[in-house]
Design a protein that fits this description.
single chain, 480 residues, alpha+beta, OB fold (Dihydrolipoamide Acetyltransferase, E2P), five-stranded antiparallel β-sheet, 18 helices, 7 strands, 65% helix
Length: 480
């Protein structure tokens, strides 16, 4: 029954999405016509710090008279200088301008079409961004509306800004500890893995991680959420002995963590799947990997249907499918080949097996995401498997020790600093390995972008091959 309801809601959401998608050009034309050289009353929806010492403000237009623009599409973005933003904060006497009404004079300009890597088509760029253009102010003048005095006193506004203030204080406190304990790219890696802030990583290291196929270590994903879940669950066992209570505590903490780091596709997906796993283990239900992937996939698209066109979304679920459906039969096949030559049990516990196993994981993920990588980045990393074998094993130690060092440093700064020095050593190792990999003759292979038909054929053939491989391994296991 639940599955039927979920599919029904998903179908309705897709219909709405397709209607909006087909009318996209009409919306752009109407927006350009109605928002040209006029004074707009806008309500701030979201505020993000931009890299160029300014703030990106997402807004919805309050005084539009266009009949062809729906409520959803009366939206846009504007950039505001740090000085002007701080002045608005001072004038409004609130921690953030989110929810406030502003008055602005200027012109509406459609967003430039995003090209690969990272985009698909002009329509998708507009619709997935939930915004049809940039409102460029001629005078850089933004004024607070008088109606804000009533709005600020409302319970909804107070609750929103209480959370914004709390979130800001927590992030600032963690960031301060990170700045105190770490330095250089070590600080950047810790900020990226814990808070999703990648600005402190040098451009050189960031490019090397992408070239060698290990940039996923700085994107909060299943690897990080899984380790965080184990840390939280084991820590709670010391204080909460009932499984049911511990499950809800983990659920609450993961929810707060996702709110803290902002909307992150891979983090939300991983958290959803971890929660399903934890629920099944807590209450004795059988855990199904397929159902957890399906439920998280459908649920996310109900709220964010445009994510289906996003590179991060596709890579996140592609990687999971590689781990769940390609890696197991591939591993069994390799074990079968090894079994013909030597004792299988000894192979299981050898260092060689650990290295081969890690390589198989990387190969499985690459096979599952190959068309996506080529489509968005016009090529693939030739050193991805080697890079993951050399770097991923130390990431777990890096992540766990960085959390310990930050938490302990609040009470025992010297011990926290001592643990942080170990984290910096691991950071130095990871950075050195990327430079060593860069010395190889071939690092990145550029390929022709495949058509959608080619991609469909690839995945159909992959499904057939994996099914045959699973059948072969199962038959061999039955026959002993």
């Amino acid at each position: 029954m639940f599955t039927f309801v979920l599919l029904f809601v998903f179908s309705l959401r897709i219909i709405v999405f397709l209607l909006s998608f087909n009318n996209c050009e009409l919306y752009i034309e109407e927006a350009s016509k109605n928002f040209h050289k006029q004074q707009l009353t806008i309500q701030v929806v979201d505020v993000q710090l931009s890299k160029y010492n300014s703030y990106l403000i997402k807004f919805k237009i309050q005084n539009s008279k266009s009949k062809n623009l729906s409520f959803r599409h009366k939206q846009g973005i504007l950039f505001i200088t740090r000085e002007k933003y701080e002045k608005l904060i001072q004038e409004s006497q609130v921690p953030s301008v989110e929810g406030l009404l502003l008055e602005a004079n200027g012109n509406f300009k459609p967003l430039p079409s995003i090209s690969n890597p990272g985009g698909t088509s002009k329509k998708i760029s507009y619709m997935s961004g939930n915004s049809l253009g940039v409102f460029e102010s001629e005078t850089n003048s933004y004024f607070l509306k008088s109606e804000n005095s009533i709005r600020i006193n409302s319970m909804k506004f107070r609750m929103l800004h209480f959370w914004i203030l709390t979130k800001t204080k927590i992030r600032d406190s963690i960031t301060k500890q990170i700045d105190t304990l770490f330095y250089g790219n070590g600080r950047g890696l810790v900020s990226a893995m814990l808070l999703g802030i990648k600005d402190n990583i040098s451009e050189e290291l960031s490019n090397l991680l992408k070239i060698h196929g290990v940039s996923h270590i700085i994107a909060i994903s299943g690897l990080h959420i899984g380790m965080l879940f184990l840390l939280i669950d084991n820590a709670l066992k010391l204080f909460v002995h009932k499984n049911g209570q511990r499950f809800y505590a983990v659920l609450l903490l993961l929810l707060l963590y996702n709110l803290l780091i902002g909307q992150n596709v891979s983090a939300i997906r991983a958290s959803f799947m971890v929660i399903i796993f934890s629920y099944a283990m807590t209450y004795g239900y059988p855990y199904s990997k397929t159902k957890s992937v399906y439920l998280s996939f459908i649920t996310y698209l109900i709220f964010y249907p445009y994510a289906i066109f996003k590179c991060g979304f596709l890579l996140s679920y592609g990687a999971v499918c590689g781990l769940f459906y390609i890696y197991p039969p591939l591993k069994e096949f390799v074990l079968y080949l090894r079994y013909l030559k030597s004792d299988r049990s000894s192979y299981h516990y050898s260092i060689l097996f650990a290295v081969v196993d890690l390589g198989l994981i990387s190969v499985s993920v690459n096979i599952a995401t190959l068309p996506i990588l080529i489509y968005f980045f016009k090529g693939v990393s030739a050193t991805s498997v080697i890079g993951n074998i050399l770097i991923v094993p130390v990431v777990m130690a890096f992540y766990v020790l960085s959390i310990f060092s930050i938490i302990i440093s609040y009470a025992l700064p010297l011990i926290g600093k001592l643990i942080a020095s170990t984290v910096m050593m691991i950071s130095g190792y990871m950075e050195s390995m990327t430079k060593v990999l860069n010395m190889l003759p071939v690092t990145f292979t550029y390929l022709k972008v495949p058509s959608f038909v080619t991609i469909a054929i690839y995945y159909c053939l992959l499904y057939i091959i994996i099914s045959k491989l699973k059948g072969f391994c199962f038959a061999k296991e039955i026959n002993g």
